[in-house]
Amino acid sequence: MEGWTTAEEDALAALAGTVPPAEIAGVLGRSVGAVRVKASRMGVSLRYRQGPVWCDGCATWRTEVDADGLCPVCRMRERVAAHRERYAEAVAKADMEAVKEREREELARETRAANRWKKRVQRAREQTGSNPRKPPTGGKRPPAAG
Q1: Residue-range domain boundaries for the chain
Q2: At what angle do helices 32-42 and 6-15 cross, to 10 degrees?
Q3: In the chain, alpha helices (H)
């Protein structure tokens, strides 16, 4: 396109600041760059300030929402919730490690106690001569026949 008509300049002045520059360019059939240059030359600000929009997440009017209809506050709440979930998983995992360590310690303690009792039974059988694994000679084997 060539120069700007008075009607286009009037439309640009009327739309500037009320709709995004890309929409103005679409209405006028011009590129966004051409609209920005012409607005600058006219001394018109294209800064678009959107009014309040409804946030579906917190059911509140906000200054901005994303494509999912959530405001920055709701996005931050989602992030915090995700961090809390990861923290809970980490704590549960850490607690599980502590439980495993306690189980290992308890198993070692019980194994030592069982081994002590086994040794006591072994000694008692040796003293009474009722140890099936050792000869009844007080722990000494008889000389080999031969």
Answers
A1: 6-49
A2: 90
A3: 6-15, 21-28, 32-42, 72-128
- Decide: helix, strand or coil at residue 16: strand
Long-range contacts, 34-41 (Cβ 8 Å, 24+): 34/1, 38/4, 38/9, 38/12, 39/12
Q: How many CA atoms lie within 13 A of 124 on its CB side?
A: 6
Single out the residue of 92, 82, 6, 96 nearest to residue 14, CA to CA. 6
Q: Hey, CA dihedral for 84, 89, 92, 94, is it positive or negative?
A: negative
CA distance 146 to 144: 6
Please give the C-alpha separations between residue 5 and each of 1, 60, 104, in angstroms, as whole numbers.
Answer: 11, 43, 86
Q: Which of 56-65, 94-103, 125-134 is predicted with the least confidence, judged by mean pLDDT? A: 125-134
Residue type, 141: R
- The CA-based angle 28-33-38, given to 5 degrees, is 65
117-136: pLDDT as tens digits: 988 888 888 888 776 666 66
Whole-angstrom distance, CA of residue 27 vs CA of residue 49: 19
Of 34-43, 73-82, 133-142, give the lowest mean pLDDT range.
133-142
